[in-house]
Design a protein that fits this description.
Elements (H helix, E strand, L loop, with lengths): L7 E4 L5 H12 L3 E6 L2 H13 L3 E6 L5 H15 L4 E4 L17 H29 L2 E8 L11 H21 L4 E8 L8 H8 L10 H11 L11 E4 L7
Parallel strand pairs: 1-2, 1-4, 2-3, 4-5, 5-6, 6-7
Helix pairs in contact: 1-7, 3-4, 4-5
The structure holds nicotinamide-adenine-dinucleotide.
The site of nicotinamide-adenine-dinucleotide has 29 residues, from helix 1, strand 2, helix 4 and strand 5.
Length: 248
């Protein structure tokens, strides 16, 4: 696809799902990958799977919504793999995340979403961006959601607010570092097949123009392109990767 040999990457929330697929894809293209997750065992299992497939990967458990934990986590990763060239801010679903109408919600529910989806992106970006600028090269990609760009009546307003904050932040970050060889882009996803209830997935798929929900392997190639050297002209963008669910 695109050669990432010699590059180092950190993918957050990569113990399962979309992030795990992205981490595996980056490793398959030659990058050395740190697999972050809140849960140590998930990160370790994903790193072992990536290594078994022939890649280089380490587990890096820390909470992206805790700035001090991020700074020390990134320091540990850089001591093990070398300076980070690539950051993929993928963590975005708080454990046990439920849905519910805003009118019945509490500030504690919103806080979790903003802390993970806005501050999590800012924390990790802040921890790596100065090194990237000093070295004159870096790639930051944030995995977001259509819920961050359009209103939907599914009870995800706080999640959407957190995602929207991340999207806006990424646009500004891109402008601030564009002259330093660092790009910053967002990929706003549509409906993903999370291997939960096949009936729910089949029902959701009916609302997707292409007729199916995405698998991690439908997302990862887009990220591989965005973090490649070839994507140096692509920055400040929010790509809608959603099977045709056109959003604005
Ligand atoms: N699943 C969907 O339908 C969908 C749709 C649109 C966008 N997205 C976005 O795609 C990304 C990946 O989603 P997914 O469905 O693969 O999620 P997932 O829940 O399957 O996996 C997310 C991982 O992130 C980890 N995580 C959660 N909080 C964390 C924290 N504070 N620090 C570190 N790790 C943390 C979790 O432990 C989990 O392993 C997220 O940003 C999500 O918002 C998902």
């Amino acid at each position: 696809m695109f050669d990432l040999t010699g590059r180092t990457a950190l993918v957050t929330g990569a113990g399962q799902g979309v992030g795990r697929g992205i981490a595996k894809a980056l490793a398959s293209q030659g990058a050395k990958v740190a697999i972050n997750d809140l849960f140590e065992e998930r990160a370790a299992e994903a790193a072992a799977e990536t290594e078994a497939a022939g890649g280089t990967a380490i587990a890096a458990a820390f909470d992206v919504s805790d700035y001090d934990a991020v700074v020390s986590g990134v320091a540990r990763v850089e001591a093990a793999l070398g300076p980070l060239d690539i950051l993929v801010n993928n963590a975005g679903v708080p454990p046990g995340m439920g849905v519910g109408q805003f009118r019945e919600s509490k500030p504690a529910d919103w806080r979790k979403q903003i802390e993970l989806n806005t501050y999590g992106v800012m924390n990790c970006s802040r921890a790596v961006v100065n090194g990237m600028c000093d070295r004159g090269h870096g790639r930051i990609v944030t995995i977001s959601s259509g819920a961050g760009t359009v209103g939907i009546p599914l009870g995800v307003s706080a999640y959407g607010a957190g995602k929207g904050g991340g999207i806006a932040f990424m646009r500004h970050l891109a402008m601030e570092v564009a002259g330093n060889g660092v790009t910053a882009n967002t990929v706003a996803l549509g409906l993903i097949d999370n291997h939960t209830d096949p009936e729910v997935t089949a029902h959701m798929a009916k609302t997707v123009p292409v007729g199916f929900c995405a698998r991690p392997e439908d997302i990862a190639p887009c990220v591989v392109y965005l973090v490649s050297d070839e994507a140096r002209w692509m920055t400040g963008q929010t790509l809608q990767l959603n099977g045709g669910n056109v959003t604005t």
